[in-house]
Design a protein that fits this description.
heterodimer; A: 321 residues; alpha/beta; Rossmann fold; seven-stranded mixed sheet; B: 97 residues; mainly beta; Ubiquitin-like (UB roll); 2 domains; 1 helix
């Protein structure tokens, strides 16, 4: 297979676009595509100061790398969920990226505040770990963004994440979630940050290839709590369809974007009476967690600031591109 | 024992004659070529036949939409014929949660 642009040996086939590209042309294609998405949907504007939600995985680290490369002064936030070795490795990978980019990395530690990891907390709270993880991550990332003076929170959600979540919501007709899966969720006043997903139209395979080609050192292992997750089943089903009928995932998501634009019905979240941050109940889930464990101290988010790296150094790829 | 992709085995069957009086020691040297070594999911597999990256994924029943194949740390397309000298690695790209 030859690269469609330069004619050299191709390194990746992109069946959704009926094309194949070499390493160099794939990197240009991917970066151009993400930048176009950012501009077209006004995800991050010139005066914006983005904060990237970082997990140590390929999506978030690639996003942080790409945003920094294109000139956005993006810092990162990492939530340490206290999942033994998995959390230690993923934090190390995030820290290494902060050093490579010369950007600040915030860290909130669950064991540091609750003296317990997410697994034990979930057991005490009688909730599934993934459900509690979602609640606390959304709260902490929003709060770090608002309190830190950042104007937009960027997450590494990719096409496969969005298509599988949409499929799950449709299969069970969870209409209350259907309008919340857009490419951008606008902020509200000074308590809810704008959230954007620049990889919304990029498949997980494309993001992984980009991470490899850019020499991004990410955690390969899965979160131990994701075993048996329905999202993995939906992703696998969608990939089977994609194999037979290329571009199905992107058509599915683009169709959703057109429809959700028309309806645009969003329930306004209220504010938690204790902390003042968004909540659909009187007291938000995070404050309930604080009450349950009798924690009175304020939220502590550590900050790790490495020496500034030059952009040229950051973009140098170990794969020799 | 493996030498430059060749697996070498010593095989020594003992044959017993009908009257149990004689033994024949037939030491046989068996050599066969290991076509490829593939690393997948923390395990190294040896395959006897050279395959393309696409055939390799089929052999492991893996979706090309959810996996990438690397030969000597280089991404390769599904039609690329892998060789025994290359370090071949399959990478899962899907994460859940």
């Amino acid at each position: 297979m030859k690269c469609r642009i330069c004619g050299n040996q191709a390194n990746i086939r992109l069946s959704a676009y009926n094309t194949a590209l070499c390493n160099t042309d794939f990197i240009s294609f991917f970066e151009r595509r993400v930048n176009r998405t950012i501009q077209k949907y006004k995800l991050i504007e010139t005066n914006d100061v983005p904060l990237v939600a970082v997990s140590g995985g390929k999506d978030s680290l690639s996003l942080w790398f790409l945003l920094t490369l294109t000139g956005a002064a993006a810092d990162g936030i990492y939530i340490d969920l206290g999942i033994d070795e998995y959390s230690q490795i993923s934090f190390e990978k995030s820290k290494r990226m902060a050093e490579r980019l010369g950007r600040r990395l915030y860290r909130f530690s669950f064991p540091g505040l609750f003296e317990k990891g997410i697994g034990e907390l979930a057991r005490i709270m009688k909730r599934a770990p993934c459900s509690l993880c979602g609640v606390v991550k959304r709260y902490l990332m929003n709060r770090a963004c608002v309190d830190g003076g950042y104007t937009v929170l960027a997450t590494g959600h990719n096409l496969d994440d969005e298509a599988s979540a949409l499929l799950g919501n449709l299969l069970y007709w969870k209409e209350e979630y259907l309008h919340k899966k857009g490419i951008a969720l606008e902020g509200r006043g000074t308590y809810l940050a704008k959230k954007v997903k620049p990889f919304f139209l990029c498949s997980e395979r494309e993001v992984a290839a980009y991470a490899i080609l850019r020499g991004i050192d990410y955690i390969y292992d899965e979160c131990p709590y994701s075993e048996g997750a329905k999202s993995l089943l939906y992703k696998s089903l969608l990939n089977k369809v994609e194999e037979v009928s290329p571009a199905t995932k992107i058509r599915f998501i683009k169709g959703y974007m057109e429809r959700v634009k028309e309806e645009e019905v969003r329930a306004e979240p209220d504010r938690c009476t204790l902390c003042g941050y968004p909540s659909y109940a009187e007291v938000c889930n995070f404050c309930r967690l604080f009450e349950r464990f009798g924690i009175a101290e304020s939220l502590k988010i550590e900050s790790y600031e490495p020496a500034r790296a030059s952009l040229q150094e950051a973009s140098a790829s170990p794969s020799g591109l | 024992m493996t030498v430059r992709g060749w697996r070498v085995l010593f095989h020594s069957p003992l044959l017993l004659t009908a009257d149990c009086s004689l033994f024949f020691d037939l030491t046989v040297l068996l050599c066969y070529l290991i076509a490829m070594k593939v690393e997948w999911d923390g395990t190294v597999y040896e395959l006897e036949k050279r395959l393309t990256a696409g055939q390799l994924l089929s052999r492991f029943s893996l979706s090309p939409e959810a996996h990438l194949v690397m030969a000597d740390e280089r991404l390769v397309t599904e039609d690329y014929r892998l060789s025994q000298e290359e370090n071949v690695r399959i990478i899962r790209v899907i994460s859940g949660g």
